[in-house]
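Hey,
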Amino acid sequence: AQFLKWLEPCPPIKFAGDLKRDQSFLINQQSDEPKLLTVTVFNPNASKQNTSLKQMKEPNGRLENANLSYRKAGEVTWNVAKNTTGGDIDYSLDSVYEDNFGYSTLEWNPKGLMDGTYEILIETRCADVGGSDEFSFTRDEIITGVIDLSAPEQYGEVLPLRDDVIVGEEMVVVFTEPLDCTPPLSFDVQVTVNQLVLKKENLLVICEGRKIGIQLDLSAGIEPSQLVGEQFTVELGKIDAGSIKDIHGNPMSPLKSTIKFSRKFGDLDLSSSTTRLLINRALLDNTCDNFALEHLHLEAHITSELVSTIGLESEEAIVVRDLYCQNMNTVGATVDIKAKDDNGLETRRFLGNGSGDVTTFDVYRKLRDTLTGKISDANGRRLVSFNPKIVAHSVRIIPHEGDMAKFETSVGDREKEELMYQIASSSEDMVASDDEVLRKLEKYEAELENGFIDNLNKEKESYFFALEERLIKQRDMEIAALKKEHSLEFEELKKQREAKFEKTNKERQLEFEVIEEGFHKLEGRSNFVDLKEMFMLQGIAVLIGCSVATIGLYFLFTGRHAAIAAS
């Protein structure tokens, strides 16, 4: 009897187990020895047709193989994965056990492959019948994973490439590959200065990409004046417990599990240094957005609040800048407490100490103690924080320009330091993307070893000549600034004297007017007395005249009567 049978596609196969669930894989130093990847697959036809993969091969079917393949990310060609004996991984072989549910497991041995990101897939291939691709092969989804069997190591020297560092300056250790920076950090850090031991809790530790940055946290109560000029030691890695690991969980080699180096805190003039800190300021009545940053004059408000909180005499020593929205209700900002302004003029006179010995860090300390409620009144009672809306953190000391020359990397190390920082800022492994940088660094180191750095002595001479010129220029600027400051003080005194002289003149003028008015009054009184005397004299003269006239008339009439009587 004859019958008609439809041509079926190549039988499917699927990933199963951990690969199906995680859709990724990792082979690292923590993987079981030998470094293998267990790959379980599922045959859907086992439950549908009760047929295993090996039963689908000739003469029962067209299946030729069911291989696990791999390729490095970015490549095109697929390669058949090898098993523990070096043969191709093929789930359709007679030697492979497939259970009644269609699951079978083999182990991939990636021995000899370079570290990196890889893709794997499982596919079946069937005898070609001239139809579409689905009749020739089927593939499951591609799964991406990582092979990383290398331990992280320190790369190069600790940055910066100089013995003296600034109190609070970041020291950077560079590694050969990106690190596991998931908090809490898996490694220990310890800085020892004399008898003072600082743990991670008192340090600012920044783990990012290939670098670990270590910086003293001056906001944790550390006094810079006690550290200036002192030698210190840094230990990084496995001290009490834990270790430095790469992003794929590989720890550093036990023989190199701790990195240790020594440096010196450079001689720094704290009286002229700037104290820089970051603050978070809560916005109780506003939302932090671009409008608030641009139109609400937050810099001026924060400056005024800080000046009031610290109790400064002027706002000239406080600079608030680089505002940003930390979240909807909080604005972040950088604050500089400056000992000198941009023109080199002293601002310490505004810091509230008539003796001039106060430093900007003293001012920060007062701000910190006020904000945290550690300031006490005259009776020893602790005062409540003046402004709980402000939180200060990440404190640094910034040397004045005159001190910066002490902390410049030498001419011979500048290029190397720049390349090292470039490597430290990368978040990728040292692969092709770094070839140019690495070639430059290797060439530079080779030239250093062989003593072939061109014109190094000339560059050093030019450097010291330029340094001398800059110091002379700086001295002239400081002299000019002092002259300007004295000139301003002289002008202020002159104005004060003129104002005092004008005030004295006005007071004297008022006195003269009062005296003159008194004279006028006296003069008016004298004229009245003279007039009175004149009237009195006139009255007397009139009385005398009248008396004489009366006597004359008397004698006249008496004479007439006598003449009449005689006649």
